[in-house]
Amino acid sequence: MSEGITAENLLNNIVETLSDRVSKQKASSFFEEDKSSSVSAQFNRLFGRQKPVHNLLGGGQSADVLLWRNKKISASVLAGATAIWVLFEWLNYHLLSLICFGLAFGMVAQFAWSNASGFLKRSPSAVPRIQLPDELFVNVAKSVGAEINHALVLLQDIACNGNIKQFSVAVGSLLVAAIIGSWCNFLTVLYIGFVCVHTLPVLYEKYEDQVDNFACNVLDQLQHHYRKVDTSFLSKIPKGKFKVKKHD
């Protein structure tokens, strides 16, 4: 009788230990899946970014304007750009004509201001004058020159580096830009880029997860097709070695 009881207790103990191990394994696998999903969600961000969109745009007031933190300022900036584009594209105003009209209007306003005191028999008041500081033009020229030099250095490095992938992407991007420029003039291209800068970041911040998942799927497909092209064609192209000559 005691042997039967001990055998029954032994079987119960074995069943309990097995059930405990199974439950622990399920719990551990569940937490591992959560960790893996969180890690994959972290690495599936667009272009591998880890910072918020606000920080990537530089932070401060410029990022607030692009992300529509202050809707009045963002709307006024976009409306001003739209008004300039409408003046030059739809109403066919020219830059020289617009500048001349603006200067003529300013001279008329200053003339009326300076001579109004004589007609109204009042003491003359100082006419406000507009003068742009020299540092403004110097800073604009320096920033534009620095960006142009940076772009030239980047293109030359890609051309002399011998990387077929980077070279193909750069040349393809320039060809696409040339095709877009043939469809419309330079001002329209600038306006389209301005509108994209003021609309795409806020839309991406709102629909971040959906855009990241879609972009990751597209990038996976592109990498898959690129591997096929690389193995069949690009890997067979001999890579040249570029040496920079030193001038004394």
Structure description:
It is a single chain. With 248 residues, the protein is an all-alpha fold. It has nine helices and no strands. It has helices at residues 2-43, 53-56, 60-66, 71-90, 95-120, 134-161, 164-183, 186-206, 208-232. Residues 1-5, 25-43 and 244-248 have low confidence and may be disordered.
- Note the overall shape: elongated
Major sheet attributes: none
SSE ordering: HHHHHHHHH
- Please give the number of β-strands: 0
Portion of residues in beta strands equals under 5%
Mean pLDDT: 76
- The CA-CA distance between the termini, in Å, is 104 Å
Features:
9 helices; mainly alpha; 248 residues; disordered N terminus; elongated
What is the fold's blueprint, element by element?
Elements: H1 2-43, H2 53-56, H3 60-66, H4 71-90, H5 95-120, H6 134-161, H7 164-183, H8 186-206, H9 208-232
Helix pairs in contact: 4-8
Short summary of the structure?
This protein is mostly helical and 248 residues long.
